[in-house]
Amino acid sequence: MIDEEHRAAFQADGFASLPRLVDDTELEWLRGVYDRLFSEHADFTTGDYFDIAGRQDSDRPARLPQIVRPEKFVPELVESAHFQRCRAIAAQLLDIPEDELDFYGHAILKPPNYGAATPWHQDEGYMDPRWRRRGLSIWTPLDEATVDSGCLHYVPGAHLGPVLPHRHIDDDDRIRGLVTDAVDPAAGVPVPLASGEAVVHALRAPHYAGPNLTDQTRRAYVLVFMGAAEEVADPEPRPWLDKD
């Protein structure tokens, strides 16, 4: 499923392109699940659906809508061949047994023509600094992901550095999305993918996805896998996570 080249790229660069993980039949099933979840989002009252790039009280259409833990609503996602493959890959790359991995999913939608950019950030920037968890994200587009439609970009090797300073998008703490200004965008390397292919990245790897400038929806399904939490003796401050 993965080889030493994938492992070496993940360790050195913080990300690695993966072979196609989803066959045509499962891809169509995932698209159907995905579309149904987003069409029914008005029924979600637990905060699982939100616009990561905008205020939740805004009247304008969501520019970067997201559903967290879609497996809560469709348990079959965890039984899928795609999930089993991804968990096996995570276990190999993290050297953690599959049954010791925690996980959760994201469904992230970039609508055609106006889907917002996902600004530079690190997944670890969202995490409580009092605890450290080894983990990774596996990002699978259900549609072709190009530079114009919003494929991911990475800075090779930047995952070996610290968690960078972050702030809320537009400096508005009513917006959930975070951005770091400590990345040189010119250093970013795009990773275009065909539908059903995937890219894996470390939780500390800075990454970005541009706006969707095409006439096609860009649907992405993300699985995050993590080992057990380890307490940090002297946690670094992350003031952007502080709540009044």
TrEMBL record:
<keyword id="KW-0223">Dioxygenase</keyword>
<dbReference type="GO" id="GO:0005506">
    <property type="term" value="F:iron ion binding"/>
</dbReference>
<dbReference type="GO" id="GO:0016706">
    <property type="term" value="F:2-oxoglutarate-dependent dioxygenase activity"/>
</dbReference>
<dbReference type="Pfam" id="PF05721">
    <property type="entry name" value="PhyH"/>
</dbReference>
<protein>
    <submittedName>
        <fullName>Putative phytanoyl-CoA dioxygenase</fullName>
    </submittedName>
</protein>
<dbReference type="InterPro" id="IPR008775">
    <property type="entry name" value="Phytyl_CoA_dOase-like"/>
</dbReference>
<keyword id="KW-0560">Oxidoreductase</keyword>
